[in-house]
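Final report, closing paragraph on structural work. Over the funding period we assembled a curated collection of sequence-structure pairs, and we close with a single example.
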Amino acid sequence: MILQNLPLFDYNNGTFMIIIFALVCVALVVALLSMVNSGKKTSNNENQLDSFVDTDDDTTENEKE
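Its predicted structure, as stored:
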């Protein structure tokens, strides 16, 4: 009769672990977003000019042949 009153499982520990896991996930997402948004901010003109810069300015197509 005494064994019928013993609990076989406890929801408190599982609930606590789920809450801790959710807090860790939220912290990781916040850290990721802060790292993504902390990059160097440049204007659009600078980005467009940098994309058109050719690294091989000294030689032309005719000189390569």
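The longest helix spans residues 11-37. The mean pLDDT is 78. We thank the funder for supporting this effort.
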